[in-house]
Amino acid sequence: MSLRHDKQTDALFESILQLRSVEECYTYFEDLCTVREIRDLGQRLEVARLLRAGSSYQQAASATGVSSATVGRVKKCLDYGPGGYEMIMKRMEADTDEDGAS
After folding, report:
1. What is the mean pLDDT of residues 47-75?
2. For burial by CB atoms within 10 Å, which of 8, 23, 57, 84 has the most?
3. CA distances from 93 to 30, 45, 48, 89, 98 (A)
4. How far apart are alpha carbons 98 and 70 in whole angstroms?
5. Does domain 41-101 have CATH number 1.10.1270.10?
6. Cα–Cα distance between 70 and 59 in angstroms, integer?
7. Phi, psi of 66, rounded to the nearest 5 degrees
8. By the 8 A CB rule, do 73 and 50 touch?
9. Helices (H), 1-102
10. Per-residue pLDDT band at 96 (split at 50, 70, 90)
11. Is the model's pTM score more than 0.85?
């Protein structure tokens, strides 16, 4: 299922693009989401990173505390989704490489 483009979702994403630091993200997302929702998003990103690095479903579930269903959903997105996880992880790796080279 693809995310439907609409004015409200566009406005949400545009608002996120206005954030300039991790601290601003904490401030905004604490208003926008529940603590649980933010934690869940972080866990999914970590599951994606672990799977991409070769971890098994069980290893990813154990390391993050998520259910096997969540690991399966993330794996499905990695394999068949629009590529969002891959795009972000490559950018984060590039940023880490640049920071390490400085």
Report:
1. 97
2. 57
3. 26, 13, 13, 6, 9
4. 32
5. yes
6. 13
7. -90, 165
8. no
9. 7-17, 22-32, 35-52, 57-64, 68-80, 84-101
10. confident
11. yes
